[in-house]
Input
Amino acid sequence: MGMNQRANQGMWNGGIVLGYDVINKELIINEDEAKIVKEIFILASKGHGYKKIAYEMNKLGYKTKKKKGFSIATIKGILENPLYKGKIRYNQHENWSEKRRKGKNDNPIIRDGIHTPIIVIELWNQEQQKLKTRSFRPAQSSKPYFLGRLLRCPEC
Output
C-alpha cells in the first residue's frame, strides 16, 4: 500500500533506469546517460527501428546502466517508458511472484512525477504514434526455405 501511495504522489518506487541516478529516493538526471536517451528518441523519430537503434548505440560504444550493450528489448523499453516524459508508472505487472511477465496489468498507475523529464512531451507523443503504426511481425521471405521456421542462426 505504501508503494501505491508513493506512486500516486508521483514519487519513484525503485528500479534502475537509464538517464537518471537515484539520490535519497529521488530521480536526478544523469547528463551523460540522458544524452543517450535523447539520441535513442531522435533516431526513432527519424524512422529507425529497434534493431537499427541498438546497432547504432553499440557502434558508438554506449552502454546501459548495467554496463552492457544495447539490445532490441532495451531500446523498446526505453521508448515505451513514460518516465522519460515526466510520468511515474507503477503496478505494470500483477502478482509478479507467481505470473512473472505474463501477468501484465492493463491499467497500471500512471501519474505526474516529481522528477524532471528528459524528453519533451511533443517528441514523446510523436514517437508513441509511430510505435502504434508499426508492424511487429517479422518479415517473411518470398522463397520457402527447408526447415526455415525451425532453425535459426545464433545471431537471429
Observations:
- The chain has one domain: 2-130.
- The two ends are 42 Å apart (CA to CA).
